Amino acid sequence: MTPELWGALLGATAGMGLLLVVARVRAVRRPSLELRVLPFVRDVQRGTGAAPRRVVVDAPRAPGIAGVPLAVFGPVVRRVANGLETVLGGATSVRRRLERAGLERSVHDFRVEQVVWGVVGFGVAAAWGTLRTLGDPGAALGSFVGCLLAFAVGVLLRDQHLTSQVRRRERRILSEFPTVAELLALAVAAGEGPVPAMERVVARSRGELSRDLRGVLGAVRTGVPVAEAFDRLAATTGLPLVARFASGIAVAVERGTPLADVLHAQAADVRDAGRRELIEGAARREVFMMVPVVFLVLPVTVLFAFYPGVIGLRLVAP
Fold it and tell me: Which residues are in the Type II secretion system protein GspF domain (predicted)?
């Protein structure tokens, strides 16, 4: 195909897309029959021995222009997300990582996000492939394969981003744990029970670990036994340290064992583990620190030391 035909095809496609967008915007902005009638409908509730009470029923709002892409492409994206779940599987692992990352969304919502990331990658590759095909029509097949690969890369990148979110949150929990454990130990040593001490600490702290403990307190307030709530926390967390912490509190509540010493010991263990990790990280980075010294500083030093002597020998030698 000639560049003129490609230009005509792209122009026609863009024009049809604009017409669809304008038609959809006009349809969304037009008030429906339900929106016109429902504000005038009243629900009358009659109580025993009381006068009729009129309650206004709130009318649903019409979706705005920002909701047009969701209304148009939402069903397609959901079907693709269901197909992606069928192909990839691993819903249990995804659900566990979502819980560990502290994200309040379902596996299906995560699959939808993966599809969106894949579509973005597909669009970038399609734009590059279109420009490439205009110069070389024979590269259309390679561009299409590149678009499919870009879609797959986008899906995998969202999965890797979820894993990185889990790691970042767990690092924050480890950094917060010694302080929270020490505060709990001080509150328990002052005579408060485990649950009141946790309420006091959670009310005065912010962070990921406080957020998990706040969820445990919410479960306890709804009637879940304290030991069972902490056992759930130990089962859902991905950090062995937090699991031991939750199991220790559950055992202390059930059997009445002293909790302050256990919390102090766990906080000391976390600080020691963080110190060891820092030393090990410094030892690993010591090797990387040698790279600029060996390949940059040392050659420049040798050059400055020997180059004047070489020039002097050339000047002296006949």
Answer: 182-304
